[in-house]
Specification:
Two copies of one chain form a homodimer. By secondary structure, chain A is an alpha+beta fold. Chain A has nine helices and four strands, in the order βαβαββααααααα. Chains A, B: Residues 87-214 form the GST C-terminal domain.
Chain lengths: 214, 214
Amino acid sequence: MTTLYGYFRSSAAYRVRIALNLKGLAFEQAPVNLVKGEQREETNRARNPQGLVPTLETDDGARLTQSLAICEYLDEQHPEPPLLPSDTEGRARVRALAQLVACEIHPLNNLRVLKHLVGELGVDDDAKLGWYRHWITEGFDALEAMLIPGAGSGDFCHGDEPSLADICLVPQVYNAERFECDLSAYPTIQRITANCRALPAFQQAAPEAQPDAG
Amino acid sequence: MTTLYGYFRSSAAYRVRIALNLKGLAFEQAPVNLVKGEQREETNRARNPQGLVPTLETDDGARLTQSLAICEYLDEQHPEPPLLPSDTEGRARVRALAQLVACEIHPLNNLRVLKHLVGELGVDDDAKLGWYRHWITEGFDALEAMLIPGAGSGDFCHGDEPSLADICLVPQVYNAERFECDLSAYPTIQRITANCRALPAFQQAAPEAQPDAG
């Protein structure tokens, strides 16, 4: 059985849950509680040397890390429905949109970084929230501009089917909402997110639907 | 002609230069001076809505962003020599190693973030350096552990040929050296980096070899 080591609120685990659901793959969940620090314990480091989540343990015992690498693996192993378009330029666009979130927004705003800002740099709660919202604004300003119909967006980030870009977008919007970011300047992001949230694959992957949701 | 909009010291542009060189592709360079803030000007935002580098303008006028997406595009358009192994699990491993650098180290340590720490959060030079080295240590500790021969590493991060993982590793090591990080705990990272630096594709992509090196 495929097992996902994750955490209900981890954006990266959330991405993998969406991908698994879009592919219609059954999987077990093994929660790693990030708030309690279980990700840094030896049992988790043995499967994920970074001491992070998610880790996907496949049927044949391989342990895969890094959410986008896992999603591409799933797409290669189970090609239907595709998470990337068939044309090379389209694939580059979808990967770029996904990486805008995964390389430019999320790494700056995840739990370990926010904890480090407070614990090591002595940043107060207001400044922490300012930091969070700054990187959301920087990233979403660009994303909104890149999601114009002329560039290939439709009902979803690329065309009219969900892709790797939407898999990254929705968990990031969820997080931005948790931090009460004002998203009124991003009508396209909101429209596409609503379209994603209408799909069972996204609904069943949502943090509040997970067994470890507290 | 393929044109790379980049900056000699940008890690992300450095990755794309290595990929272009490994593929043996000719390209023009159009420098965007990050220290002068040219990346945020309208001319750059028109080609890269994030206001970042690199942007690769292809022969047919397409403008591609995000370095890993660009490298995968080049690999799909010009399959030889491959930047990813042929087996699905190997591809997942190489992508995960690349993303460890591109999603977990570099986003926290690039120029715009360091500037924000100093300018907005009032962090002093010592604390900025501490921040930089902290994320290098976190990332390289994990990377060193993941580069064991049993997991598939050889002369390079995966096997005996350079891949997308090495393309990400070498610019990150270059940056760590600039910030005088102690790399003595990472013999495998150092050995693989030395092997990469023996190759013309990496040498010709090095920051000091670029036309805009100041």
